[in-house]
Amino acid sequence: MSVNLERIKNDIHELAEIGRCRDDRGIYRMAFTDADMEGKRWLKDRIEHAGFEPRTDGAVNVSAELSGATDQARILVGSHIDTVPCAGALDGTLGVIVALECLRCLREQGVVPERTIELIAFSDEEGRFGGMFGSQAVCGQLNPDVLATLSDLDGVLLGDELRRHGFDPLGALDAARDPETIASYLELHIEQGPVLDRGQKSVGIVDEITGLFTWSVSLKGEANHAGTTPMEMRHDAFMGLADFASAIPRILDENGSARSRATIGKAQILPGAANTVPGIVEFSLDVRDTSPETLADLGNAFRKALSAIARRRNLMFEFQQKSYLPPVAADPAIVKRLLRQAERLELTHLQMHSGAAHDAQIMGSMVPVGMIFVPSKNGQSHSPAEWTAWTDIEAGANLMLHSLMDLANG
Question: pTM here?
Fold first, then answer.
């Protein structure tokens, strides 16, 4: 049994046109925008066309199921179809389309699995409103206060957006599932990195999903004249940032692991004049690892480094933790099953970790999870250049199809 690649291609191309910008060719289907809701309607139409009944829960997650022969706990499979601004065609979307194709294949072949297999397309995985709204709703991680206060970077309230589309925000509380009804959750996703592409592997089997914390950091010194203030008398906030940035590789070597990452992705220098010694620098720090203990060690090390630099440069420093996601391990039994199926299908594969967060990370806090990666050309993602070879998409989809049958009947 194998997937129909032409159907997958058609679905990818059709959905990619929803939210497409003609100028930069990027896709703008951010959560709960009109384009995102059009995408959800498209998905429900495709589900109906395949002979399934589409359903929408209070968090606006879209789902469909292939009924099993028993009432045993079901298998969930899916991802998301919302995007970042100026996105590519595959991030999240590929996992949903492949899940739908797997259900179509099984129905066409007359397969009735022991366990029900349910496709689910989660809302707002990309975090327009600060989290992974759809999977958090399913895992019961929301409450009325959160629903009333979540907003995007422009100050738009999640509740207002939901009401604009005819949904009661409190309905998201009803999307919570009983974990006893879910045997496992599987997700196929593009890698969003270069490892599989450079290693010429068709698929990756994820064993761990990285945890992360993000800080907003401020170094405060004293703004002064660039020409009249001697170098040894300056309280230069930017030099503090430069010292810290150069210390990151050493801190990772001493306190991290091979899977550790640390990134300063955004910085602002104030007052921002060419002839003024910087008085304030504000920057972000994103730190990731698959071990919670290593994340804690890195947090302590970065805090000590900032404190030492501030003393040496006569600066003050403050930081605020903006987010924290704990690492999640894929279920070892599912990893073994995925590896076994990859070997049986004679696919070139690699066991690896995920350096990006996914809905599987949230679901993994409640049920056993597994993930399949397919290569990203040149490691590119969150860009119109994002792409995966059709042969690799077909390989990943067939691995998902056979793994679903294995899990649903095992």
Answer: 0.89
CA atoms of 392 and 348, how far apart (whole Å): 10
Inter-residue contact 372 to 186 (CB < 8 Å): yes
- From residue 116, how far is each of 56, 74, 106, 256 by CA, in Å? 18, 5, 12, 42
- Contact between residue 298 and residue 262 where contact means Cβ atoms under 8 Å apart: yes
The tens digit of pLDDT for each residue in 313-323 reads 999 999 999 88
Element of type H or E holding 331: none
* φ/ψ bin of 377: left (φ > 0), alpha (ψ from -120 to 50), beta (otherwise): beta
Instruction: Judge contact between 64 and 55, C-beta under 8 A.
Output: yes
pLDDT, one tens digit per residue, over 343-390 is 999 999 999 999 988 999 999 999 999 999 999 999 999 999 999 999
d(CA 358, CA 380): 17
Residue type, 328: V
- Name the residue with higher pLDDT: 193 or 323: 193
Quote the distance between the C-alpha of residue 315 and its chain's center: 36
Distance CA 204, CA 189 (A): 10
For residue 272, what are its two tokens?
Answer: 């921002």
d(CA 133, CA 129): 8
Residues 6 or more apart whose CB falls under 8 angstroms from that of 352 comprise: 195, 196, 204, 205, 206, 207, 373
Contacts of 300-303 spanning 24+ positions with Cβ under 8 A: 300/255, 301/251, 301/254, 301/255, 302/215, 302/251, 302/262
Q: Are 57 and 170 in contact (CB under 8 A)?
A: no
